[in-house]
């Protein structure tokens, strides 16, 4: 599903040049659950941004479902992104002014789904994530675990082929964290490809494979049992 | 402590350069407008107050209806003043002014100069008005005929010195009356309703004195301390019965004032306070063009609104920014800063900004003063700003604004619980504030009202310029003072007619624009006048070329002609007169007037034609009754000319003039200019309204710009999330714009009825006016929306273009 070859990303400021990704190559097959690990500043987030089509690489190739997307412009990337990729963040990134329902509904609005249909889809997802009873609450009124469940609901509402998770349990206690990991595993089992950046060896164990990074390069790949 | 506060305030200003700049610029512009308009209003309100007895001086106004439209006069009859003083002990003194001659030619060396600021006054003039003498005794200066009092400027102009007592000046009165200078006075202040340079003795006025029925003199009464002018007003009823009625009976059949009134007529006199004349009087025979209290109100309101808009910006930006400073407050509190100290810090900050703005505002006001003087038609000097009251205002204003703008954020912020703030739980509430929305609505409502006002003022002015006025005001060159040519008048006409480009010539003594010569008389439908068949009418002397030259049209009958010897007793009436008379076809009918020399005898005139109505006064007035008679109004001469090479043409005319009247000044004007001068006050109001509308909108936009950038900044993260979730740039821009648009639309809902009401009132000043069409409001609302969108677009597009990676990286 994803194949990157010789991917490079360099950040320049007036004085320093930081190599975030250094000729990075790997492949993720459809239906895989891959964890990306590495110390702070190793390029994990940059990788996730590029994989999420939020940012473009300086060099190298990025095949998404067999299509070269490395040179896509903003509009094409956005189009591909909103139909195919869901995001889960460490700090949830729910919009404070919107209710749980409205937060989850958002991606459907942007992909142009009709109102009546949206209601059905959102309710269905909220039900699955077991937060239906909180549909009219605002994010601040929820616990961290509940907020992340809303975030996951929002990530999957469009039925994306790929979910990118950036330390999804980073702000959660262990029981809430486990719950969220279970959610991701369930999604994976239903066929969604998941790439997750994490610091936690515990969370990494939920994945099929761990890619370890250092200074913008992969240093090791473990296949999890 | 205070020094530390200022240091911190300064650093905060520098740290938020962008917001500080918007804040200071907006407030400074607002304050500058406020300063200028305050100067204007103060000046307008100060008229005639230089007179020490101003509070006791009144002018007698006359309101007359006789068969036609109401005449509101600033003048009254010549015996009025003396009679009132004789009969009523409340009258301490009276003084009359006679200015009907308008201007005089005064000889300097061998040449006559046309002087406009001249008048004849009673010897009591200086006992009523405060015009200090430089030399001579003003109490006795005008006691005798052939005396004149001159101002310092006039003395310097004609003699180069103020030591001129006993010297004589020659005028064109009766072909060269000499006047002896008996006193020199200080120049009359600009804020006076009269501006004489020469005050001549009343004894030299060539007038049939003792006539209660002719109204030609401005009469001022100085009432004794404690006299109630409202009570005194009632005395005019017995005055009219005792003096006016007996004279009226001589030439018309009227038995009592009651009968006169019942026929729909009116003859009333009222006292008008001296200090009201400049702003509240727009009557026939005013000495100078007065101001208008309406404009004082409107401009004061505009000044206040602009200041409010600027203050609102200031408050809005301060409170909006407060959210950003919540963390600072939290940390300070954790470190032990007291609430008191925080409040003081915030107040110091806002007051510093207000003071900086004031300094800038004074600079802007000084720079803009010449421009403002030009559009408002004033001659205000910057020294007006140095009066104590004004300086006090300038000091108090920024402190008040600073405190007002600072109080809300300072109390709001200083009340934060440090834990909450540091946890970031405050931000959400500060983002959307009802107060801020209300303030933005207020700003835009004001802007919309100003836009509507400006559009309607300009439409009305445009209407006046282009309305079918019944004559052609273009290409008419008027040569003034042609009376000075004497017997050479015809020769002059003949010579000028030979100049290429001159098409025709006519007498121009009576002109269809305000402030031209006027002559009215009473007429009747039957030979014997009574209070039902009599009416007042303008009588203009013209020649047979006048009607075609002015482009006027005949509705019925014919123009005057040299072929009809009987035309000396013929009249051409206008359509208003025709409708007063009520004949289906008035041509061939007669009208009557009484003989000046023998009021019991009547003179008859034959109506030979009806001229289509034309506006001969400002469009604020209905077209009154008017008739033309054949005659030679020789003091001005009208030429219809070709507008090409106008400069050359005029200089050729001047050459002819100099040949025939070498010692008299050559003076000319164009009819269309005189026409436009009638609406000078409205044009100025239009320009002032336009200038300040633009400024108000700029200031409001400045605030909106700041607010939009603040909102975008506040919502950076939300925008990032939305983009990640697939929002396009359009989605984001429209999301951010929608909130503001909603506010602008709500403003329109408030502004439209209010602006309709205000402009409806203004238009009521005009007898001939435009309708207020719905599209004006639509246009104003659309303009406001477009302006608001353009203003915020820079910020919203910038926010929408930001790569979400940047806004979400902060984790």
TrEMBL record, chain A:
Entry-linked SUPFAM superfamilies: P-loop containing nucleoside triphosphate hydrolases
Alphabetical list of CDD domains matching this protein: ABC_MJ0796_LolCDE_FtsE
Statement: the UniProt record of this protein carries the keyword Zinc: no
Tree of life domain: Bacteria
Gene3D superfamilies assigned to the protein according to its UniProt record, in alphabetical order: P-loop containing nucleotide triphosphate hydrolases
InterPro entries given in the database record: AAA+_ATPase (IPR003593), ABC_transporter-like_ATP-bd (IPR003439), ABC_transporter-like_CS (IPR017871), ABC_transpr_LolD-like (IPR015854), MacB-like_ATP-bd (IPR017911), P-loop_NTPase (IPR027417)
Gene Ontology annotations for the cellular component aspect, listed alphabetically: membrane protein complex; plasma membrane
Domain ABC transporter stretches: 5-225
UniProt entry tagged with the keyword Chaperone: no
Any one GO molecular-function label of the UniProt entry: ATP hydrolysis activity
The entry's keywords: ATP-binding, Nucleotide-binding, Transport
Family named by the database record: Belongs to the ABC transporter superfamily. Macrolide exporter (TC 3.A.1.122) family.
Protein name according to UniProt: Phosphonate ABC transporter ATP-binding protein
Lineage: Bacteria, Pseudomonadati, Bacteroidota, Chitinophagia, Chitinophagales
UniProtKB/TrEMBL annotation, chain B:
Membrane-protein topology: Multi-pass membrane protein
Transmembrane segments: 21-41, 295-317, 353-372, 392-416, 437-458, 688-712, 740-760, 772-792
Main location: membrane
Positions of the ABC3 transporter permease C-terminal domain: 301-415, 691-800
Subcellular location, record wording: Cell membrane
A GO cellular-component term linked to this record: plasma membrane
GO molecular function, one term: transmembrane transporter activity
Keywords, in A-Z order: Cell cycle, Cell division, Cell membrane, Membrane, Transmembrane, Transmembrane helix
InterPro entries assigned to the protein according to its UniProt record, in alphabetical order: ABC3_permease_C, MacB_PCD, Macrolide_Exporter_MacB
Domain MacB-like periplasmic core as annotated: residue spans: 20-235, 488-615
GO terms classed as biological process: cell division
PANTHER family in alphabetical order: ABC-TYPE MACROLIDE FAMILY EXPORT SYSTEM PERMEASE COMPONENT 2, MEMBRANE COMPONENT OF TRANSPORTER-RELATED
Record-given protein name: Cell division protein FtsX
Biological source species: Flavihumibacter solisilvae
């Amino acid at each position: 599903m994803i194949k990157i070859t010789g991917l490079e990303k360099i950040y320049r400021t007036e004085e320093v040049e930081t190599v975030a990704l250094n000729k990075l190559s790997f492949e993720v097959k459809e239906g895989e659950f891959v964890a990306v690990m590495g110390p702070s500043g190793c390029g994990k987030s940059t990788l996730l941004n590029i994989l999420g089509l939020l940012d473009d690489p300086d060099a190298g190739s990025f095949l998404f479902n067999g299509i070269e997307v490395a040179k896509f412009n903003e509009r094409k990337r956005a189009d591909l992104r909103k139909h195919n990729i869901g995001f889960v963040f460490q700090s949830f990134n729910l919009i404070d002014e919107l209710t749980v329902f409205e937060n989850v509904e958002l991606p459907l609005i942007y992909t142009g789904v009709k109102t009546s249909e949206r209601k059905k889809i959102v309710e269905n997802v909220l039900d699955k994530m077991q937060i239906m009873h909180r549909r009219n609450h605002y994010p601040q009124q929820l616990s961290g675990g509940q907020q992340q469940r809303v975030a996951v609901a929002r990530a999957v509402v469009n039925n994306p082929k790929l979910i990118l998770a950036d330390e999804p349990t980073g702000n959660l206690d262990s029981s809430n964290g486990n719950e969220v990991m279970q959610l991701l595993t369930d999604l994976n089992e239903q066929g969604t490809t998941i790439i997750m950046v994490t610091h936690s060896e515990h969370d990494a164990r939920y994945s099929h494979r761990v890619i370890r990074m250092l200074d913008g390069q992969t240093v090791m790949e473990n296949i999890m049992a | 402590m205070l020094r530390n506060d200022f240091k911190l305030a300064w650093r905060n200003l520098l740290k938020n350069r962008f917001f500080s700049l918007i804040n200071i610029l907006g407030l400074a512009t607002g304050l500058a407008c406020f300063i200028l308009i305050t100067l204007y209003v103060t000046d307008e309100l100060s008229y005639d107050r230089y007179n020490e007895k101003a509070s006791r001086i009144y002018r007698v106004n006359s309101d007359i209806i006789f068969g036609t439209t109401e005449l509101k006069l600033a003048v009254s009859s010549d015996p009025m003043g003396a009679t009132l003083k004789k009969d009523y002990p409340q009258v301490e003194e009276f003084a009359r002014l006679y200015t009907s001659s308008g201007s005089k030619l005064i000889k300097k060396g061998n040449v006559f100069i046309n002087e406009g600021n001249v008048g004849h006054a009673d010897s009591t003039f200086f006992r009523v008005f405060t015009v200090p003498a430089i030399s001579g005794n003003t109490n006795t200066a005008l006691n005798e005929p052939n005396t004149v009092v001159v101002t310092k400027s006039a003395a310097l102009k004609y003699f180069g010195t103020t030591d001129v007592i006993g010297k004589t000046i020659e005028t064109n009165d009766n072909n060269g009356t000499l006047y002896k200078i008996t006193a020199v006075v200080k120049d009359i202040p600009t804020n006076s309703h009269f501006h004489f340079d020469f005050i001549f003795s009343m004894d030299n006025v060539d007038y049939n004195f003792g006539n209660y029925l002719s109204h030609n003199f401005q009469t001022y009464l100085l009432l004794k301390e404690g006299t109630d002018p409202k009570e005194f007003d009632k005395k005019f009823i017995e005055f009219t019965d005792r003096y006016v009625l007996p004279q009226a009976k001589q030439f018309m059949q009227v038995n009592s004032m009651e009968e006169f009134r019942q026929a729909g007529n009116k003859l009333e006199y009222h006292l008008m306070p001296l200090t009201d004349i400049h702003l509240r009087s727009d009557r026939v025979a005013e000495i100078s063009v007065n101001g208008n209290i309406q404009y004082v109100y409107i401009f004061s309101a505009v000044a206040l609104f602009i200041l409010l808009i600027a203050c609102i910006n200031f408050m809005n930006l301060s409170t909006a920014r407060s959210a950003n400073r919540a963390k600072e407050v939290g940390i300070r509190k954790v470190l032990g800063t007291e609430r008191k100290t925080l409040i003081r810090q915030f107040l110091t900050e806002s007051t510093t900004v207000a003071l900086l703005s004031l300094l800038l505002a004074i600079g802007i006001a000084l720079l803009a003063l010449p421009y403002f003087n030009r559009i408002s038609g004033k001659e205000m000097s910057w020294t007006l700003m140095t009066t104590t009251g004004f300086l006090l205002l300038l000091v108090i204003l920024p402190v008040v604004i600073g405190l007002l703008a600072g109080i809300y954020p300072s109390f709001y912020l200083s009340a934060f619980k440090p834990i909450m703030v540091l946890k970031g739980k405050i931000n959400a509430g500060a983002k959307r504030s009802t107060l801020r929305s209300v303030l933005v609505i207020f700003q835009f409502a004001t802007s919309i009202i100003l836009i509507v006002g400006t559009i309607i003022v300009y439409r009305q002015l445009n209407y006046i310029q282009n309305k079918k006025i019944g004559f052609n005001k273009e290409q008419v060159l008027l040569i003034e003072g042609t009376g000075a040519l004497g017997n050479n008048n015809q020769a002059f006409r003949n010579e000028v007619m030979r100049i290429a480009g001159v098409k025709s010539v006519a007498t121009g003594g009576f002109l269809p624009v305000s402030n031209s010569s006027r002559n009215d008389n009473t007429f009747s439908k039957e030979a014997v006048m009574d209070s039902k068949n009599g009416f007042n009418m303008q009588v203009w002397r013209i020649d047979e070329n006048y009607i075609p030259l002015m482009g006027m049209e005949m509705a019925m009958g014919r123009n005057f002609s040299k072929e009809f010897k009987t035309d000396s007793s013929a009249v051409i009436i206008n359509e208003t007169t025709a409708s007063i008379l009520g004949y289906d076809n008035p041509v061939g009918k007669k009208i009557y007037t009484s003989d000046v020399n023998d009021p019991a005898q009547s003179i008859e005139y034959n109506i030979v034609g009806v001229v289509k109505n034309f506006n001969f006064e400002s469009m604020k007035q209905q077209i009154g009754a008017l008739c033309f008679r054949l005659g030679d109004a020789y003091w001005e001469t009208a030429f219809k000319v070709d507008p090409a090479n106008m400069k050359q043409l005029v200089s050729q005319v001047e050459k002819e003039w100099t040949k025939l009247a070498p010692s008299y000044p050559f003076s000319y004007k164009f009819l269309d200019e005189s026409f436009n001068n009638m609406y000078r006050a409205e044009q100025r109001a239009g320009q002032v309204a336009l200038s300040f509308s633009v400024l108000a909108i700029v200031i409001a936009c400045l605030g909106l710009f700041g607010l939009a950038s603040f909102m975008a900044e506040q919502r950076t993260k939300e925008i990032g999330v939305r983009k990640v979730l697939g929002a396009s740039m359009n989605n984001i821009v429209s999301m951010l714009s929608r909130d503001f648009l909603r506010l602008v639309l709500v403003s329109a809902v408030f502004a439209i009825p209010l602006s309709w009401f205000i402009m409806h009132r203004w238009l009521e000043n005009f007898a001939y006016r435009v309708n207020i069409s719905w599209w004006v409001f639509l246009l104003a609302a659309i303009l406001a929306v477009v302006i608001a969108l353009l203003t915020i677009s820079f910020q919203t597009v910038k926010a929408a273009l930001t790569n979400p990676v940047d806004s979400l990286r902060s984790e």
